[in-house]
Design brief:
Layout: H1 10-26, H2 35-48, H3 54-65, H4 71-77
Length: 85
């Protein structure tokens, strides 16, 4: 059976990349952020995500970019109150 796309999981790779890029841009100083670019990335990410998973992708990306951060606090920041992390 031929694989779908280039990697076989292209949509997942693009979703993770967009989430990571958005979280990284959000962590820049406000004067260094491009709001238009961030808005565009958020639209692309939302269109690429399964319904209801946008904040989960963002929380996972923030945890990847902040490996020593408080994972529970990060997940709470994105609206996940009762999750074990």
């Amino acid at each position: 059976m031929p694989k779908k796309g280039i990697t076989g999981h292209d949509e997942w790779v693009v979703t993770e990349a967009l989430a990571t890029a958005l979280v990284a841009l959000e962590q820049l100083e406000p004067t260094q952020q491009s709001r238009q670019q961030m808005d565009d990335i958020r639209k692309l990410l939302a269109a690429n995500c399964q319904p209801g998973t946008l904040n989960l992708h963002l929380a996972q990306a923030k945890c990847r970019l902040n490996p020593h951060g408080d994972r529970a606090a990060i997940y709470r920041e994105y609206g996940f109150e009762d999750w074990e992390v």
